[in-house]
Design goal:
By secondary structure, the chain is an alpha/beta fold. Helix content is 31%, strand content 25%. It contains 8 helices and 12 strands. The strands form 2 sheets. Strands 2-1-3-5-6-4 form a 6-stranded mixed sheet, with helices on both faces. The radius of gyration is 19 Å and the shape is elongated.
Length: 248
């Protein structure tokens, strides 16, 4: 039986496990999808050695960047983004060959593109991790100028406390790539001047649990267009399956 899985820490409830195992059951595919909750990325070789049936892995927080040094090759797109969240595993004799891809950018770009209007020229990206890097790549590919938002003073970023009403009017697309507002911490949201939002703003949250985060709720109340990360997740999973089976 083929195996697929997810590496990350901590994992908790995983969308991927239920999605792929349901897919395998409904399509009669002889495979299973497993969570590999590893406390350090250095445990990856052990996971591979203990599971010779592995054909593919998804990668989540905090290993999307750290995993890159373990790979034999990386797709040009994933290398440009600087983040990998899909690994194709190929056994060649006694050797295991690992190729990295990024499905975040595919899922996000396809999901947000229909919502982009001609007046959406600039975007704020909340967060600076692996997902934020993919979102930056995707937004730029759609022709938007981007600015990262961080809690800390970093080159090429703006701090939350410096985001004024004028900033959210200029950067009228705002994408949350942080876990702020995710279950069970549903009473939190990124610190922004929400009262300055209007129907020219587009708020997109990578979080899908809860369906409507406080970030999206505040945006919707001000007339902004809003969307959560569920469709992106489904599109990512579809892209992962394609990457695992490329050249077959």
């Amino acid at each position: 039986m083929d195996k697929y899985g997810l590496i990350g820490y901590p994992l908790g409830h995983s969308f991927s496990v239920s999605y792929f195992n349901e897919k395998f059951a409904s399509e009669g595919i002889d495979a299973e999808y497993i969570n590999f909750e590893i406390p350090t990325i250095d445990a990856l070789p052990e996971v591979l050695a203990s599971n010779p049936e592995l054909k593919g892995l998804n990668v989540t927080i905090p290993y999307k960047q750290k995993v890159m040094s373990f790979l034999d090759s990386i797709s040009p797109e994933a290398r440009a983004i600087g983040s990998v969240n899909v690994i194709k595993v190929t056994n060649k004799g006694d050797n295991v060959y690992l190729k990295g891809f990024n499905s975040d950018v595919i899922g996000f770009t396809k999901s947000i593109e229909p919502m982009i209007e001609r007046f959406h020229k600039k975007a704020l990206i909340l967060g600076t991790g692996g997902a934020a890097k993919a979102i930056n790549y995707g937004l730029k590919s759609l022709g938007l100028e981007t600015l990262f938002v961080s809690r800390y003073e970093r080159p090429g970023t703006i701090q939350y406390k410096r985001i004024t009403p004028e900033v959210v009017k200029e950067y009228n697309v705002i994408v949350n790539c942080t876990p702020c507002g995710m279950y069970p911490h549903t009473d939190t949201c990124p610190e922004l001047p929400y009262e300055a939002l209007d129907d020219h703003n587009l708020l997109y949250d990578l979080i899908y649990n809860p369906d409507e985060t406080l970030f999206l709720y505040h945006g919707r109340k001000q007339g902004a267009s809003v969307k959560n990360g569920l469709e992106m997740l489904l599109l990512q999973a579809f892209a992962s399956w394609n990457f695992w089976h490329e050249d077959k």
